[in-house]
Each structure stands twice: as structure tokens, then as C-alpha cells.
């Protein structure tokens, strides 16, 4: 049975009713696949992940967090032998998307600070309260943030960032620093629950409450790591004044409620900021340089800004001379800085997307620029050949289901997105005003319409640009 039918069966089992819509959500930085299943009454999130041990960890943690009354998604159904499970739908608004919206308003800082204080108030409930009787049996890949975990992160950074970014280093000297670094970190108090990826895109906002997702990498560890993950999340781009205020707020929470010493916390805080940034840089390198997913490269410049601040304010006894030389090369690299696109801010770029029929003519660009893209969709299996689809369009669910099941349209669009993204990012950086993208098929009714719709959604979700969508043969804009 395929994953769609498996997830629809879980939906029907739980809600006693069929799912009418089944839509894949945009991919994240993992190999997990997320789907929104819904009908007129209810909605849920279906997950497919062929990593059984990671699924076991997520399910085990979810049940324990719910028992501790923490705000995580409800687990509706699971079928782990088939790699699927069904969760509560928390909507689409994350802490990250919320702060991006707030930055378009006047004086948003106070609202952003309040959001982060609410989130930080919840953090010790995971770290300390839930940790008291926590069962770490299903942790994956490690039960503790131990030496092996740290060396994996540092090697990830070395091989997927330093090497791919062509930063020169001495293999032995950097390994010596890694050895000293891990020895220092291992001397920190590590009896707490470490969420591992506590950052703005893993925090959902719904009905004035914060909900927490993607904690399957959790394990036993120190308090400092999760605070560093949240406050030094590169894309969120908090000011350093904000970070100082929020750190003081968090310390007051753990000091007053849990009796944790402020100075012992501070002693290890900046080294844990460093290893978190290095782990994140490894991910940006792997996803960006190696897998060529360009949007991961956009996190590099703000991460370098965080790195520069950290090196300028390094006041711990820990010395890492060769590693710091490598970090200075990164900070001063014009090549790495070139990935700095103003994508969190409004752009004057308008992307005109059109579907058309090759029986007529390719749409003309009336902006005066010329150029742009014209994609020929006629290599894709045509639903218009079949009687049941002839009077439908690429906006109808039956046609969409046909294209997804009977053609390579997802692969086609993946390549389209990569090409168009390159131009959009370049046009934003250079202050251009217009870009035109056209999709053609035989009748301009099915394949081209679907592709135009999907690109419009993709650009709307990813960039702060204006999108104009026109279906020439349907007469719809």
C-alpha cells in the first residue's frame, strides 16, 4: 500500500470519516515527508519517514511530553511498521514567519521580545521538569550529548563547510582544538533534556499559544545548548541587544524557580553558542554546497555575523587558536558573504506567471525587459487525453492527483524552482522590477495551469515578492 493510502486510512480510522484533500507540504531540511489531510470538518498532518529509529524517538518523546502537559502536537494514530503516523494540525504560522511579518510594521521589537519571552518560559519545562523522570531509551542516534555527538558535529562542520567553502586549515591542529573543545564542554552540568533543534521554525503559533515540534533528536545534555539554538538562530536575525535581554530573562527563570547558579551557566554559554553555530554551518554546507539547495546558503551571512560577534566577545578561559584562525577566514570571506540576499525584507520585484497554449502564441512581456523563462510542459503525461479530465483544469483535485501519480511533474517543477530561484534572488539583489515566467502545453488547460499555480505558491511562500498569475486560456487572473 502506498503512503497516500496508508495516511488516508489512519485519518479515517481516527476521525471516522474520509480525507477529501491530500497535499504535500514544502520540504524541510530533513528527509521526512509531511502531508496535510483534511475534509470539511477536520484537518491533520500525516508524516512519512523511513527511519524507524527516528520515528520511535519522536513517538516516545511525544507521549512523554503530553503526559507532562507540554504543548506538542497530539499523536492521533501511528503505524510504525509502515513508517507513517498522524498528528494534530497546528497550522502554518511559525515563530519565524511571525517575526518576519512583524518586521514590516513600525517598532516591532517589543512584540518580538514578548514572543521570545513566552517561548523561553516554556523551555525549562522541557529541560528540567520533563527531564526528572524522562525515559531516554529511544533516543537516536545518541542518548546523551556526549563526546561522540560533539565530534560528529565538529566533523560535519569540517568536512561539509570548511572543505567545501575552501577554507584552509591544518588537519592536526584543528583536531587538537576539537579535542580541547570537547573536553571543556563535557565538564558542563548535563543532566537535563536537550531539545537539540530549539529554533524559530520549530515553534508553531496557534490560538495565542506556542507549540513545539521536531524534537526527535533530543537527548540528555546541558541547558546552554538550547538557549544558544534559539537566540543565535541565524535567519531570525535578533539584535545583540535583544539576545542580551532575553538571556537575562531566561537566567532569571532558571535561577529563581530551579536554583541554578547564574555564573556556572554563563561560564559555558559562549562555548555552547560556538558548537551550535558550527553544527548549523555544517548543515548549511551540506544542504547548500553539496546538495545545491540555494536557500540554505542564505543563512551563511547572518551566521557569520553571529560568529564575528562571538569571537569579538570571547571571554572564557578556553583557547582554540587554530579553529579561531579558520573562523576569521570565514568571517572575512567575500565569497561567503555574497550569499547575503535581502529576502526578509520587502522587494519591488513583480514576477508575472502565465499559462498558455502552444496552439496560439507565447505570451509577450509588456514590462519592456524581455527575457524571462518559457517552460514547455508537453513532455508531461497529458490528462487532457482522457475523457474524464477534458472539462477540468490543472486547478481541479482530480487533475492534480493524476499529474502527481501518472507523471514526473514533481521532478519537472523541482528543476523549474531551482532555475527561477536563481533569477529571483539575483533580481532582488540588483533591484530589478520585473520577471516573467510562462508555462505552455497543448491546450493551456491542464499541465501548464498546474505548473503556474505551483510556482506562484512556491515564490509566495519563499520570497517577499509580488506575484501576478494569469491563465491565458481560462481567462483567469
Walk me through the structure:
With 477 residues, the chain is an alpha/beta fold. It folds into three domains: 3-88, Phosphorylase Kinase, domain 1 (2-Layer Sandwich), CATH 3.30.200; 95-337, Aminoglycoside 3'-phosphotransferase, Chain: A, domain 2 (Alpha-Beta Complex), CATH 3.90.1200; 350-471, no CATH class. The chain is 47% helix and 14% strand. β7 (203-206) and β8 (209-212) form a beta hairpin. α5 packs across α9, α7 packs across α9 and α11 (300-312) crosses α12 (321-331). The protein is globular and about 75 Å long. Residues 341-345 have low confidence and may be disordered.
Number of helices: 16
Q: Spans with pLDDT under 50 lasting ≥5 residues?
A: 341-345
Estimate what percentage of residues fall within beta strands.
5-15%
With strands numbered from the N-terminus, the spatial order across the biggest sheet is 1-2-3-5-4
Number of separate domains: 3
Tell me the span between the first and last alpha carbons: 39 Å
How much is the average pLDDT? Answer: 92
Share of helix, binned = 40-55%
Class computed from helices, strands and strand pairing? alpha/beta
Q: How large, in whole angstroms, is the Cα Rg?
A: 24 Å
Largest sheet: 5 strands, antiparallel
Give a brief outline of the structure.
The protein is of the alpha/beta class and 477 residues long. The protein is built from 16 helices and 13 strands. It folds into 3 domains: 3-88, Phosphorylase Kinase, domain 1, CATH 3.30.200.20; 95-337, Aminoglycoside phosphotransferase (APH), C-terminal lobe (Aminoglycoside 3'-phosphotransferase, Chain: A, domain 2, Alpha-Beta Complex); 350-471, no CATH class.
Amino acid at each position: 500500500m502506498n503512503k497516500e493510502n496508508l495516511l488516508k486510512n489512519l485519518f479515517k480510522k481516527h476521525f471516522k470519516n474520509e480525507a477529501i484533500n491530500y497535499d504535500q507540504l514544502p520540504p524541510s531540511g530533513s528527509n521526512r515527508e509531511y502531508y496535510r489531510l483534511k475534509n470539511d470538518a477536520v484537518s491533520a498532518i500525516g508524516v512519512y519517514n523511513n527511519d524507524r529509529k527516528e520515528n520511535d524517538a519522536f513517538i516516545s518523546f511525544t507521549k512523554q511530553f503530553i503526559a507532562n502537559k507540554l504543548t506538542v502536537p497530539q499523536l492521533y494514530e501511528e503505524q510504525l511498521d509502515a513508517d507513517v503516523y498522524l498528528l494534530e494540525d497546528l497550522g502554518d504560522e511559525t515563530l519565524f514567519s511571525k517575526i518576519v511579518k512583524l518586521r514590516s510594521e513600525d517598532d516591532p521589537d517589543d512584540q518580538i521580545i514578548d514572543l521570545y519571552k513566552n517561548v523561553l518560559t516554556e523551555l525549562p519545562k522541557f529541560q528540567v521538569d520533563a527531564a526528572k523522570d524522562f525515559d531516554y531509551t529511544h533516543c537516536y542516534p545518541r542518548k546523551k550529548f556526549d563526546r561522540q555527538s560533539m565530534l560528529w558535529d565538529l566533523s560535519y562542520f569540517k568536512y561539509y563547510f570548511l572543505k567545501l567553502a575552501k577554507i584552509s586549515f591544518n588537519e592536526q591542529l584543528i583536531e587538537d582544538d576539537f579535542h580541547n573543545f570537547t573536553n571543556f564542554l563535557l565538564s558542563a552540568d548535563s543532566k537535563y533534556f536537550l531539545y537539540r533543534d530549539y529554533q524559530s521554525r520549530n515553534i508553531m503559533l496557534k490560538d495565542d499559544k506556542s507549540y513545539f515540534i521536531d524534537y526527535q533528536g533530543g537527548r540528555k545534555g546541558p541547558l546552554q545548548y538550547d538557549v544558544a539554538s534559539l537566540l543565535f538562530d541565524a535567519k531570525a536575525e535578533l539584535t545583540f541587544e535583544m539576545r542580551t535581554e532575553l538571556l537575562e530573562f531566561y537566567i532569571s527563570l532558571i535561577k529563581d524557580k530551579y536554583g541554578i547558579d547564574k555564573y556556572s551557566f554563563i561560564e559555558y554559554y559562549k562555548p555552547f553558542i560556538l558548537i551550535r553555530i558550527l553544527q548549523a554551518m555544517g548543515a548549511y554546507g551540506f544542504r547548500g554546497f553539496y546538495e545545491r539547495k540555494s536557500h540554505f546558503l542564505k543563512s551563511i551571512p547572518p551566521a557569520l555575523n553571529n560568529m564575528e560577534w562571538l569571537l569579538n566577545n570571547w571571554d572564557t578561559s578556553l583557547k582554540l587558536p587554530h579553529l579561531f584562525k579558520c573562523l576569521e577566514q570565514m568571517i572575512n570571506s567575500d565569497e561567503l558573504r555574497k550569499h547575503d540576499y535581502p529576502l526578509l525584507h520587502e522587494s519591488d520585484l513583480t514576477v508575472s506567471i502565465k499559462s498558455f497554449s502552444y496552439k496560439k502564441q507565447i505570451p509577450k512581456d509588456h514590462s519592456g525587459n524581455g527575457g524571462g523563462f518559457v517552460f514547455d510542459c508537453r513532455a508531461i503525461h497529458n490528462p487532457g487525453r482522457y475523457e474524464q479530465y477534458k472539462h477540468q483544469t490543472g486547478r481541479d483535485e482530480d487533475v492534480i492527483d493524476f499529474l502527481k501519480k501518472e507523471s514526473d511533474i514533481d521532478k519537472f517543477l523541482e528543476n523549474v524552482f531551482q532555475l527561477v530561484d536563481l533569477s529571483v534572488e539575483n533580481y532582488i539583489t540588483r533591484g530589478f522590477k520585473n520577471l516573467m515566467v510562462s508555462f505552455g502545453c497543448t491546450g493551456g488547460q491542464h499541465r501548464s495551469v498546474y505548473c503556474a499555480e505551483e510556482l506562484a505558491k512556491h515564490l509566495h511562500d519563499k520570497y517577499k515578492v509580488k506575484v501576478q498569475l494569469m491563465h491565458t486560456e481560462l481567462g483567469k487572473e
